[in-house]
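Much of what follows relies on a compact textual record of a protein's fold. A record is reproduced here so that you can trace the correspondence yourselves:
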Amino acid sequence: MRELGITGAVRGRKIITTIPDSAVERGPDLPDRNFVAAAPNRCWVADFTHVKTWSAVVYVAFVVDTFSRRIVGWSAATSKETRLVLDALDMALWQRDRDEQPHQRGELIHHSDAGSQYTSFRLAEHLDAADIAASIGSVGDAYDNALMESAIGLFKTELIKPGRP
């Protein structure tokens, strides 16, 4: 790479956005760090990040299918309220229906970190209505949602901050 005059992308500091709600009982860690699915729509991982812009901070939520490693849903907002993650989940459900690959009720796991948005009653109701099993990783352990952390890291490195540390 040096001979060609190119360098790899460098990642910057990480800012913590996961704030667990200690008053809420968390779901189990169903994938148990095994992010390999046998078919589409068996396990989705979800998380969100912040992006600094000239005028404000924007939060971007993603839902990734662990089988295809494809972003199946996303949402952006200036607030990190539960609506942000609900919109990303709704887009994922809509996208899979549109692609004629709807999830089979009772066979899909939605895995996320322990942030208050993902342990909220509103998200639990939403998942329950679609017959999707909620799964929560442990607090402060990126390996429990490693696939999503990697996808967000690539999003920031390649699209948000290309060429910057």
Summary: The domain at 43-160 is CATH 3.30.420.10 (Nucleotidyltransferase; domain 5). Helices lie at 82-98, 121-129, 146-160. The radius of gyration is 16 Å.
